[in-house]
Design a protein that fits this description.
Layout (H helix, E strand, L loop, with lengths): L5 E6 L2 E6 L11 H27 L9 H12 L2 H18 L3 H21 L5 H17 L14
Antiparallel strand pairs: 1-2
Length: about 160
């Protein structure tokens, strides 16, 4: 039995009715995918705003991990580089939350995520699950905006 319910979708100047099974917007996205991207973008933005503000406001207590991980973090704090990384996280997170310049936010946060993954893979594996979740969220949002990055992945003519 076919579902004949209709949804109003804004198309250009007015609204049109489309049967529910073929409900795809002008960008070719299904509503479930749009919701997934929205949730991923907001979660990613919140994570980076919360953790990015921590070097400035120090509301999440931290203990230095032992060994190389602790030495690495000590260098970041002593050199004040942690403020640069925190600022990048806050800027990228806010851009994601306000849904403006999302490709720029993804570009800013990409290297930060690579650094976080490398840190947890090589020095402090107990934070790896959150790093992997953040990476998955980043890729979900990235695939929605992949057309904005098409020039980066184009081969140069010979």
């Amino acid at each position: 039995m076919e579902n004949n319910r209709s949804f109003d979708i804004e198309c250009g100047a007015g609204a049109c009715s489309v049967p529910a099974p073929s409900c795809i917007d002008l960008l070719g996205e299904e509503p479930k995918m749009k919701i997934l991207v929205l949730i991923a973008r907001i979660l990613l933005g919140l994570i980076f705003v919360v953790f990015g503000l921590n070097p400035f406001l120090k509301y999440i207590p931290m203990q230095m991990p032992p060994g190389t991980a602790g030495q690495f973090l000590t260098v970041l704090f002593v050199s004040h580089f942690v403020y640069v990384v925190g600022a990048a996280q806050v800027i990228g997170g806010v851009l994601l939350l306000v849904n403006r310049y999302v490709p720029l936010a993804l570009t800013i946060l990409g290297p930060v995520i690579v650094s976080i993954l490398a840190y947890h893979l090589l020095m402090d594996p107990k934070g790896l699950p959150l790093a992997i979740i953040v990476t998955v969220l980043w890729f979900i949002v990235f695939f929605r905006y992949k057309q904005n990055f098409s020039g980066i992945f184009a081969a140069r003519p010979a």
